[in-house]
Amino acid sequence: PGPLAAFELPAKPIHQEAIRHLCSIWRNRVDLQEEYEDAADALEQAAGLAPLALPESSIAGLDTFAFIENRLLHAAVANLVAGDAEGVLALMAKRRESFWCRRRAEFPLVWSLVDAGAQLLAMGMNIRQALKKRKWTARELVEAYTRHTEPWMVLDRSARHLESRYARCEMSAAPNEPGLEQLMTHCRKAYAETLAVLAETYSSALEQSGFEVESFAPQSHVFADRVSPLLKAGEKVAYLLVDALRFEMAAELVAGLGDEFEVTTDAAIGQLPGITPIGMAALMPGAEKGLALDKAGAGLVVQIQGQPVTTRTARMDWLKAQVETPLVICKLGEIARLTPKRKKELTEPKFIVVTSQEIDRHGEEASDEEETRLYMDEVLDKLRRGIRNLLQVGVRHIVIAADHGFIFAEGLDAGLSMDAPGGETVELHSRAWIGRGGVSADGFFRANASDLELGGPLELAFPRSIGLFKVKGGSGPYFHGGPTLQ
Question: Is residue 143 left, alpha or beta, with left meaning phi > 0 and alpha meaning psi from -120 to 50?
């Protein structure tokens, strides 16, 4: 191109290769990298290189100037919006260890955002295509989400990473804003479309299976199957009850623990309606014998063997009464930062129960969405610290379980909101109605408590697809409940 024509290059290939080799050494010598960076920036500016029209294919493997990295970022974003997720992932593989990514933190930050977007778009397309090909059973859908070689849960992890990395890009003033807002709009739309198809397919499959999923244990059997045998064997056990620890987050949590742990990650079928009081009750001893729902005063009461276990305090009292092993109950913050006093208190008991509300509380209550997304990533690190600290007090078996997952998605159609069934409403959430009577409508389906292996006289209703019931104060981008794979 014009500005480069004035530069005289040696004619012999061996001399050209010597120059390339010299520049490569210059970039890779730690003691010379700063000088290379300064020299490259000065020449780029003096020669007016940044505006040059250079084909993406001709610069994809080059490290010479910073404008190349910027140009490739712009191209990657444009290609993603145009639908070439696979091509962008291939380009990413070339740029991960580039000189400019090593020298300037803003470049790997934006590339990581682009990577999450490419993963999301590629997985979303694969899921939508797979669902169109045939009819799926509930068991096949859960297996695809949790057990495939490329499990569908990666869709939700990519969406979570995309949003948290975008928040970091905004805080760090990403280079030249290479169409990131347009990319986010495109990815959010694709994610919402995939969520809708997944939810509708899963809802239909659950209805047809009578709300049973073959080959997967129900959530209510977690304590009896995973905790009780260890306690009976006299082992020292920690039981972590993590509110809203979605399956993909759990998989990421344990992947970051390293080789010092032997880990098994299994999926259980969450107890509908997928709200905290019922999901946490399902993780208690005795839940395998049945939970019951009833109305108490103006609200819902959850029972195990006739005993109310609706609140955390009631559940912990129930747990103490059912377990013969000496136990101690604490919150995540107490084990994440283990004081000498707490360490001493946790050394003697054979059973440690840890509760965590951080993810769900921030999702439901925080006013700053970006802060919430960043905090969710931090919770995983906090859990890892707590798990490692449990080793210091002699724990050798740790069971981690969640009450429900969640969906955290911008760009969902506001028209998806619908009126609840009405009648006698005992409890209303954006994804679940519990009560008696009321109407039926195409946007949601109804079930008796007994259909869901719950005792009591109440009925439940859930939106089909990704719809939401109209609730007081409206629904934000974070919600849970109802039949979704998340």
Answer: alpha
